From TrEMBL:
Positions with biased composition (Polar residues): 1-16
CDD domains: EFh (cd00051)
Name of the protein in its database record: EF-hand domain-containing protein
GO CC annotations on file: cytoplasm
Organism: Canavalia gladiata
C-alpha cells in the first residue's frame, strides 16, 4: 500500500525541541523509522496489522479511501494472504536498497498535497502531521518547508519532494 510510505517522511530540524519518546527516531536507519510507523498502525501491539487497524489508521489520517479501496490496498500489502500485514510485508513497499520507489514517493506526495494543487504548504504539512498524532506548530512546519523548498516559493513541489527523498532528507 503506497500511502503508508507517507508516514515515514520526517525532517530533522535543529530548531525543533527534542521529541518525546513516542515520536519516530530522528537519527536512525530506515528500518527503525519504519518500525515506528508500523507500530502506529499496530494499535493492539500484536506484531501485525489487521484490516480493522489498517482502516482505522488510514481513516484517522484523512486519506479518503473508500471501503473498497481500503480493502484492496490492504490485500495488496498482505502478500501471504493471511489476513494481516506483518512487518516484513510492511517493509516490502521498499526496494532492495531500502530507497523508496518513485511510485511510493508520488503517492506520499499526494497524501501531503491535501488540496491537489501540486505543492505542499506548511499548513498542509501541519494538518497531515496532526492527523498522525504529531504536534507541530505552523511556525515549525514553515521552517521544515523552507529546508526543502529549493526555489524559494514557500512550497514543496513534487521535484523538491523527490529530491528530498532521494537524498535521504526527512520532512518532519
Amino acid at each position: 500500500m503506497s500511502k503508508l510510505s507517507s508516514l515515514q517522511f520526517h525532517h530533522s530540524n535543529s530548531l525543533r525541541k527534542p521529541s518525546p519518546p513516542t515520536n519516530p527516531p530522528l537519527k536512525s536507519n530506515k528500518s527503525e523509522e519504519m518500525k515506528w510507523v508500523f507500530n502506529k498502525f499496530d494499535t493492539n501491539k500484536d506484531g501485525k496489522i489487521s484490516l480493522k487497524e489498517y482502516k482505522a489508521s488510514v481513516g484517522t489520517m484523512g486519506w479518503g479511501l473508500g471501503e473498497t479501496e481500503a480493502v484492496e490496498s490492504f490485500e495488496a500489502m498482505d502478500s501471504d494472504g493471511d489476513g494481516f500485514i506483518d512487518f516484513k510485508e510492511f517493509m516490502e513497499m521498499f526496494n532492495v536498497e531500502g530507497k523508496v520507489k518513485e511510485t511510493e514517493i508520488k503517492s506520499a506526495f499526494q497524501v501531503f498535497d491535501l488540496n491537489g494543487d501540486g505543492k505542499i504548504s506548511a499548513e498542509e504539512l501541519s494538518q497531515v502531521l496532526k492527523s498522525l498524532g504529531e504536534s507541530c506548530s505552523l511556525s515549525a512546519c514553515k521552517k521544515m518547508v523552507t529546508g526543502v523548498d529549493g526555489n524559494g516559493d514557500g512550497f514543496i513541489d513534487f521535484n523538491e519532494f523527490m529530491r528530498m527523498m532521494m537524498n535521504g532528507k526527512k520532512l518532519a
